[in-house]
Amino acid sequence: MNSPANRIWTISNALSMIRAVLVLPVVFAILQRNEMEVFAWGIVASLTDFFDGYLARKLDQVTEAGKILDPLADKILAGAAALAMVSIGALPVWFVVVVIARDVVIFTAGMYVKIRLHIVLMSNMLGKWTLVSIVLVLITALFDLSGSFGWVHGALEILATGMMGASLISYGIGLKNALKRNKT
């Protein structure tokens, strides 16, 4: 029988999967330039993000699959939303390239460690705050604050870019330490 950590079908994991599927209505609403609908779907996605972690701990449903699904759902949703926003001219291409490149590097490194060492590196608070900074950039771009408040959006792009670099370095250090601890 599978141990609790090896389960896939839990309430928490279902919420992460729902968040990944929310990419469809979010992208559609962005392409339709329906800011309020995007905002509403964003609230739903945020609630699934909050409750998947909360319920995983509360119901003792922290699983190996959940450690992968939760951040993967965040990456899929943020990346797809950013790509859709580039397609309507709301975000610069360079910013989206940085977001997606960082996520690909982190996911690839995480899967390498999972396959090689059979462990899942947990996301950390810096990574969570980095996602918040990316979402703030998306929100300011979505509501077209580049008018009289363009400096806010520009400052948030710079902040998010710096945080993406810092979180990538932090993840790299965690990866290096995991490899060093489990060296055979």
Would you mind describing this structure in some detail?
This protein is an all-alpha fold. The protein has one domain (4-181): Four Helix Bundle (Hemerythrin (Met), subunit A) (Up-down Bundle). It has helices at residues 11-21, 23-31, 35-58, 64-87, 93-117, 125-142, 150-181. It is globular, with a radius of gyration of 17 Å. The model has no long low-confidence stretch (mean pLDDT 87).
What is the element layout, followed by pairings?
Blueprint: H1 11-21, H2 23-31, H3 35-58, H4 64-87, H5 93-117, H6 125-142, H7 150-181
Helix pairs in contact: 1-3, 1-4, 2-3, 2-4, 4-5, 4-6, 5-7, 6-7
Mean pLDDT: 87
What structural class do the secondary elements suggest? Answer: mainly alpha
Strand content: under 5%
Number of strands: 0
Q: State the share of residues found in helices, binned by percent.
A: over 70%
| CATH architecture label | Up-down Bundle
CATH topology: Four Helix Bundle (Hemerythrin (Met), subunit A)
Major sheet description: none
When the domains are counted, the total is: 1
The termini sit apart by 29 Å
- Low-pLDDT sequence parts: none
Can you identify the CATH class? Mainly Alpha
Radius of gyration: 17 Å
Quaternary state, please?
A: single chain
SS summary, helix count: 7
Overall, the morphology is: globular
* Topology pattern, helix = H, strand = E: HHHHHHH
